[in-house]
């Protein structure tokens, strides 16, 4: 049995608390959060407190707060020499306060408050200052997920950067597609099967081999037609830059 | 019963021939293609010919060839005043030869030769010069798909442009993510659940509301860290441009 306390009440804290609560060999002892409104829902299934002074004794303390609050929250904890891990993709482990043993417990996924997630399929990236703590975090991860990877802070930075491309920038491409259609009163629903299939392809084959489209085949005529359609659009430069980059990449040497 | 002949032997021709063959109320009469090697597999389940002179009489002739061959192939057909439709997203209906009645039968999906597709979920965009032919194409579409939309050549241009963003450019983002990880020997598999979830979100909620990330929240510090990681990368400018565009879009007014 691993005793866990979560500090934070946002999306990651919510999803972690729910899965910890459901998992037999994990004991979610407490959720700590200063915002009483967002803390409230947690009281339905575990002990909660809005005071750092009331924090209990546990095997792992997980700080699941926004990136810029990690430092301050880790300093406020009224515990010493305990295993304290944060859940961020972009904050280094060393940013945690020195008074406790540092660790990372980073679920590599995008969370929304009301969308259910299947933790089994979410990679958990863990890191710790010493082997013993690393094993604790690894064990904790393995109880909820089929993929637990030991990832250094350096590697995690790279992962987070890559995630910006495949998540944030991809979503922006969806948004641009949606906007282009909305302007002409065409339903975005028509593109949804294509969106699903494109994502599926990337997980089955290498994206390098899956690349298609006018820029890939240097189809200048189609590119020109598209740029003409985009002549007054804020997205014209993005189309140009991406097409040029694809074209250069697939026709180099 | 609708009698159909397919002209072409590529990915779209292959998938259409397979689904037509399987569908009760559709009679796939013939597949015509000049390349005997790529035509061969079709002979396992229907009549084939590599000569345009042997083309039979049918209700609908579907030209499924590459965009730049549509014009020439439609001119070579030795039939007159028949309903001839092409399957391209980016070629106007008027590009078909005047000697036949023109139409469009555009399945909005990305096809690979060896990847199975479920036509039920693929939107079919149809267009014709007259109502009667439009109904024929609509009926044909409805026999294989749950979504058939009547889309003008103008609208189809816009759809195709939007599809470049959500398919070609999205795949390129996957490729960039993959490359960034490969350079540091980190497995791309770690990102696959994120890729699936991001696509799922876009089909459940509006991409505008789903947008997250450093550029969305104007997290200059993280953006700077990422640009530093990308300092010698060909993808630095793409990161910069997309971040700037997202940032402007979500912080305008």
Overview of the molecule:
The structure is a homodimer of 253-residue chains. Chain A is an alpha/beta fold. Chain A contains nine helices and eight strands. Chain A has helices at residues 11-22, 36-39, 70-76, 131-144, 153-182, 192-204, 207-210, 220-229, 236-250; strands at residues 2-7, 26-32, 48-49, 60-63, 83-86, 101-107, 124-128, 148-150. In chain A, strands 3-2-1-4-5-6-7-8 form an eight-stranded mixed β-sheet. The longest helix of chain A is centred in the middle third of the chain and has 30 residues, at 153-182. Chain A is elongated. The termini of chain A are far apart. The model of chain A has no long low-confidence stretch (mean pLDDT 95). Chains A and B meet through helix 5, helix 6, helix 7, helix 8 and helix 9 of A and helix 5, helix 6, helix 7, helix 8 and helix 9 of B.
């Amino acid at each position: 049995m691993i005793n866990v306390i979560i500090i934070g009440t946002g999306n990651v804290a919510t999803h972690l608390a729910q899965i910890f609560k459901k998992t037999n060999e994990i004991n979610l002892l407490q959720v700590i959060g200063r915002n009483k409104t967002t803390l409230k829902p947690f009281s339905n299934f575990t002990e909660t407190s809005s005071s750092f002074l009331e924090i209990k004794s546990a095997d792992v303390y997980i700080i699941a707060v926004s990136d810029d609050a990690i430092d301050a929250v880790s300093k406020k904890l009224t515990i010493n020499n305990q295993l304290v891990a944060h859940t961020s993709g972009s904050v280094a482990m060393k940013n945690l306060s020195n008074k406790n043993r540092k660790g990372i417990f980073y679920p590599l996924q995008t969370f929304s408050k009301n969308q259910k997630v299947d933790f089994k399929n979410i990679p958990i990236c863990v890191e710790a200052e010493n082997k013993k703590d690393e094993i604790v975090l690894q064990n904790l991860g393995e109880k909820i997920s089929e993929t637990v990877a030991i990832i250094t802070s350096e590697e995690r930075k790279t992962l987070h950067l890559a995630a910006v491309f495949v998540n944030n920038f991809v979503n922006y491409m969806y948004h641009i597609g949606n906007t282009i259609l909305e302007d002409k009163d065409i339903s975005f629903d028509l593109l949804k099967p294509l969106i699903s299939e494109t994502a599926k392809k990337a997980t089955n084959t290498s994206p390098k081999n899956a690349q298609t489209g006018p820029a890939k085949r240097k189809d200048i005529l189609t590119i020109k037609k598209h740029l003409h359609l985009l002549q007054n659009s804020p997205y014209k430069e993005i189309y140009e830059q991406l097409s040029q980059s694809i074209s250069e990449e697939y026709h180099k040497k």
